[in-house]
Amino acid sequence: MSDFAYPVLVYVHLLLFVLWLGADVGVFVLGQHFRKREKWSLDQRIALLTLLVEIDMVPRSAWALMVPLSLSVVDAGGWWDVPAWLLLAAWAVGLFWLALVWDSHWHDQTPRAARNRRIEGVLRWVIGGFYLWLGGQSLLLDAPLAPDWLAWKGLLFGLIFVAAIMIDVTFKPVGAQLAAVLQEGSSDATEIPLRRTMDRTRIWVWAVYVLLAVTAFLGNVKPLQ
């Protein structure tokens, strides 16, 4: 049964990676078109933004599920005998995080969604810190993850958390800036601050893409022992 479980978990792990990166590229493309006010009307741009928010649920969901799944793959593959309590905690936290993501989406612009996102923010920093510790500890002491490629994957996954968190932090002013566009109309005075915020956010988006690509390379090629 364990011989069957490992390849299945690896397949789901790869599937989540494809969904995460593929959907995120879709989000990026829609964001690029939203910026083109000379090409699209304001109503069309709002429609693009609505689609962006819907598609963004795919990478957000994949991100939450990747946490317990990554530890399950490591355990099933014999790379680390993950304590049972940690595996159970990872699945509980991952599913709780997934529930928060969707509950916030369904109750957007409400105090309930704001509360969920505050909880989610704490979870992401804690989990990101765990992976940074796991990768760093393993690189220094060869334990609990002995292969260097796997230790680097853990460290880079922690950095993905930092970069993805920074996307949300940098993007936060967009709410008020977009409201100004809707209330006052499209003009340099309302559009330029919005464009600047989106430009700053793109830096962290590209950081996530690069980190995801390098992490996937390490997991598939295993260049370091």
Quick recap of the structure?
This protein has helices at 2-34, 42-55, 57-76, 84-106, 111-141, 148-171, 174-184, 188-221. The protein has 225 residues and is mainly α. The mean pLDDT is 94.
Textual characterization of the structure:
With 225 residues, the protein is mainly alpha-helical. It has helices at 2-34, 42-55, 57-76, 84-106, 111-141, 148-171, 174-184, 188-221. The mean pLDDT is 94.
Keyword list:
elongated; 225 residues
Q: Helix tally? A: 8
* Overall morphology: elongated
The helix/strand class is mainly alpha
Which radius of gyration do the C-alpha atoms yield?
A: 19 Å
Distance between the termini: 28 Å
Produce the secondary structure layout:
Blueprint (H helix, E strand, L loop, with lengths): L1 H33 L7 H14 L1 H20 L7 H23 L4 H31 L6 H24 L2 H11 L3 H34 L4
